[in-house]
Amino acid sequence: MLLKNKNILLAVTASIAIYKSLELVRLYIKAGANVRVIMTDSAKKFISPITFEAISQNKVLDENTESWDKNSDYNHIDIGKWADVFVIAPATANTINKFANGIADNLLTQTVLAYPKIKLIAPAANTNMIQNPITQASLEKLKLCDFEIISSQVKELACKDVGDGAMAEPEEIFYATARQLIKDDYWTNRKVVLSGGGTVEKIDDVRYISNFSSGKMAASMALSLYLKGADVCLVSTRGYENLPKEIHVIPVQSSDEMYKGLVDSIKVVKKDKKKKSFLFMVAAISDYIPSISENGKLKKDIIGSFWKLDLKQNMDILSSLDKNDIVSIGFKAEMDETVALSNAQNMLKKKNLDGVCLNILDDKNSFGSDSNKIELILKENSYKFSGDKVKISSDILDTLKGEFKEYE
């Protein structure tokens, strides 16, 4: 229930991409939001208002249903007062250019002019119409006027042309909306680096050593940070495939690649002097790696009946990173509950961390699950969390905000 009790006003215009807006409404409703839909008369040529009414469980606002009755807020002034956020998806080139020039010749454009807060626009049009200098100038103008543009994508369009102009996917628009509603001043524009997934250590060109880490916890942390407004960089081996495009992902495999990616990323985030940066080391990095990585494929007839694989201890990436002037939080997975807490506390001290998230693995709490149990251990306090990984991530971030409020 990410958007529980949030009020979302969605406007749809006359584009074939309107069918995606039905899925968008479903995502909003599933997340707990209240949704109302504005339709232009031309949009009704593509989809009947009753379809949106069935999914949103609210009457569609259009030229025919606008009401100025004192007990109604179904008009272009009062519905904006009801809405926490205003999304226009799809937005045609015609509508975009009207917005940029302050034209208010229908109910939608009137509502936009009357809405004082940020408006999200997801353009959808033929490539030539989107790339037309007039439309591009309008989009740039709107960015300066409390509009946030959710970029269109390159794919085969309804007209069979291939190019930029397809509306962003519903999930991308959903995340952009949620970010607008959930963002937190503490985390907004704060630069954060995370590591995620289990590292892949090459034996030869077809075999490797790894572990069962799915990367889901790191992805959940990255998503929660993004929704709270942070500038997120995730260095990960897996689990990042469905994250919002605005999250900067550096795909890696080996621990050596991960180390280099983290070093470079930390150097970049430290340049921001406005807000102290954070580092979350969520990845499960191999403790041992093959002593020699072979080229090609080692053959069974050469190896023989038994294969004694020579391993060497891996570098300690977390201890090696430059953590000066950055808040660093480590993650530690344990299976023996009797020593888990003391091991996490030792990690906190020995690796010069500001906090450790302790995860005790068992049958109900294992790699790859969507839920988790975590104890956040700080130098003075500790906190316990359980439940869905995204919810846990959000709770951890809220707790860290309170503990490190001096970095406001």
Topology, pairings included?
Layout: E1 7-12, H1 18-30, E2 34-39, H2 49-56, H3 78-82, E3 85-91, H4 93-100, H5 107-114, E4 119-123, H6 127-131, H7 133-143, E5 147-149, E6 153-156, E7 162-166, H8 170-182, E8 191-196, E9 201-202, E10 208-209, H9 216-227, E11 231-236, E12 248-251, H10 255-269, E13 277-281, E14 288-290, H11 300-303, E15 311-313, H12 317-320, E16 326-334, H13 337-350, E17 355-360, E18 371-378, E19 382-388, H14 389-403
Parallel strand pairs: 1-2, 1-3, 3-4, 4-5, 8-11, 8-13, 11-12, 13-16, 16-17
Antiparallel strand pairs: 6-7, 9-10, 14-15, 17-18, 18-19
What can be said about this structure in brief?
The protein is of the alpha/beta class and 408 residues long.
Query: How would the global form be characterised?
Result: elongated
Question: Biggest β-sheet: count, sense, barrel?
Answer: 8 strands, mixed
Distance between the termini: 28 Å
Strand content: 15-25%
Radius of gyration, taken over Cα atoms and rounded to an integer in Å = 25 Å
What do the pLDDT scores average to?
Answer: 93
Low-confidence stretches: none
What is the helix tally? Answer: 14
Percent helix: 25-40%
Strand order of the largest sheet: 12-11-8-13-16-17-18-19
